[in-house]
């Protein structure tokens, strides 16, 4: 009896070693891709295009696409939301700064950009793999799903934008903001001549 268990362990050992090696190599390349944001998103765009072309040519798997759209909408809400919700923070007594003397709190996302990218890329890869199994090709009338998703997107984004306006935060980082103060029209001409 012990021989059978030892044979099973010796058969599983190479598989576990391969799994650990693959996991380590995958994590290495994932870590190296972190600073290359544009390249990562371009790669994801290629994966999205392949998925869209596959669904278009097969003329099916609309329920998979709908589920993917709902998942991406959920990720987008996490990406656009602050880590600490101002509504809940206001209940605790703390609030966002309203005066110049209040403490500055930078915008920190609930879902960081890298995790957002990774989740979207993984979701499209899984959805692409699902298109190879006919069990996921549930017959539906896709225009209804599309209209429902658009309505859901509009209502969700409206609520998120109203939240942004109410608590005065902008989730998009456009770099360092620089303001120019001009004392006289003469300063404007000096500014133009510098550039």
From TrEMBL:
It is found in: Membrane. InterPro entries: Rer1. GO terms for cellular component: endoplasmic reticulum; Golgi membrane. GO terms for biological process: protein retention in ER lumen; retrograde vesicle-mediated transport, Golgi to endoplasmic reticulum. The chain crosses the membrane at residues 41-57, 63-81, 116-134, 140-157. Keywords: Membrane, Transmembrane, Transmembrane helix. Pfam families: Rer1 (PF03248). The keyword Transmembrane applies. It is a multi-pass membrane protein. Belongs to the RER1 family. Involved in the retrieval of endoplasmic reticulum membrane proteins from the early Golgi compartment. This is Protein RER1. It comes from Trapa natans.
């Amino acid at each position: 009896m012990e021989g059978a268990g030892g044979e099973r362990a010796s058969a599983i050992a190479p598989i576990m070693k391969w799994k650990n090696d693959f996991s380590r190599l995958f994590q290495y390349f994932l870590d190296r891709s972190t600073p290359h944001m544009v390249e990562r998103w371009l790669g994801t765009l290629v994966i999205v295009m392949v998925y869209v072309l596959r669904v278009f040519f097969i003329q099916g798997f609309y329920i998979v696409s709908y589920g993917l759209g709902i998942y991406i909408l959920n990720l987008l809400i996490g990406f656009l939301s602050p880590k600490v919700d101002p509504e809940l923070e206001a209940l605790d007594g703390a609030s966002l700064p309203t005066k110049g003397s209040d403490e500055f709190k930078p915008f920190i996302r609930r879902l960081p950009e890298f995790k957002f990218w990774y989740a979207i890329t993984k979701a499209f890869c899984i959805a692409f793999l699902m298109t190879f199994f006919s069990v996921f090709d549930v017959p539906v009338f896709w225009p209804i799903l599309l209209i429902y998703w658009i309505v859901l997107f509009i209502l969700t984004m409206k609520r998120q934008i109203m939240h942004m306006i109410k608590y005065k935060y902008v989730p998009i980082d456009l770099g360092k903001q620089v303001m120019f103060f001009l004392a006289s029209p003469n300063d404007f001409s000096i500014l133009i001549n510098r550039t």
